[in-house]
Amino acid sequence: MSKNARRLGSVACGLVICGIAVWAQSSLGTAESFAVLAGSTVTNTGASVITGDLGVSPGSAVTGFPPGVVVGTIHAADAVALQAQNDLTTQYNALTAAACAANLTGQDLGGMTLTSGVYCFDSSAQLTGTLTLNAQGNPNATFIFKTGSTLTTASGSSVLLINGGNPCGVAWRIGSSATLGTTTSFIGNLIALTSITMNTDANILGGRALARNGAVTLDSNNITFAPCSITPPPPVPTLAEWAMIGLAGLLFLAGTFALRQRRRTI
């Protein structure tokens, strides 16, 4: 990878505040529970395993389950799938509006190591080999990829997320359709305007295949969605609150002791 490409990865986060304004790890709305979502049809061949919900709207056709397995709920043209598509459209539009910090048009993503930021392609994008996403120890690191048209991965390609990143912080906004080549190992939320095709044994292990208008076509794939909503830890009591808790405990113990003494004197 060239020094210029490395610099792009370093400055992109600073220019767009890591993309948080347009892609937060809890920004999918009701589409978050879906590992697969299509606009027209979902078609499967072979022993695919989908961990998460599967849906289609406004279309209603879901075929190939079984032999495919859904570890979740299938929503075909129901209110849940419709709302998920609405939320997906909102997120797609927000990603579309994101300012590009680095334009990689004409470059293959294979062999690159990128830090958090917004990376754009005027037309199509290609991944041949391994793309490494370096979160630099930040669990909230955000990686946004935008293409004017297609995304295509070659057979055996992979996306790696290293140094403490969350797969849900990776968003691929595709201007038309995405095709994952055989045995591709992919990470991130793949959001395509039209369709998504996953060839034999291509896997998304930490992400989603979400198509707004067209079909999602599967062939012996594993897709495991990455939890996006982050549940905040319970609040830690302040010193004053700890004092009140301690006082309440002492009063309880004093009352219990007094009750026992009274019973003894009766």
Summary keywords:
266 residues, alpha/beta, 2 domains, elongated
Describe the secondary structure blueprint for this structure.
Layout: H1 3-16, E1 34-38, E2 41-45, E3 49-51, E4 53-56, E5 61-63, E6 69-71, E7 74-76, H2 79-96, E8 102-103, E9 113-114, E10 117-121, E11 125-127, E12 130-134, E13 143-147, E14 151-153, E15 158-162, E16 170-174, E17 178-180, E18 185-192, E19 196-198, E20 203-211, E21 216-219, E22 222-224, H3 239-265
Describe the 3D structure.
- The chain is of the alpha/beta class and 266 residues long.
- The protein has 2 domains: 3-224, no CATH class; 233-266, no CATH class.
- It is built from 3 helices and 22 strands.
- The strands form 3 sheets. Strands 1, 3, 4, 6, 7, 8, 10, 13, 16, 18, 20 and 22 form a 12-stranded parallel sheet that branches. Strands 5-2-21-19-17-14-11 form a 7-stranded parallel sheet, with no helix packed on it. A 3-stranded parallel sheet has the order 9-12-15.
- The chain is elongated.
- The model is unreliable at 1-21 (pLDDT under 50).
How do you describe this structure in short?
The chain has helices at residues 3-16, 79-96, 239-265, and strands at 34-38, 41-45, 49-51, 53-56, 61-63, 69-71, 74-76, 102-103, 113-114, 117-121, 125-127, 130-134, 143-147, 151-153, 158-162, 170-174, 178-180, 185-192, 196-198, 203-211, 216-219, 222-224. With 266 residues, it is an alpha/beta fold.
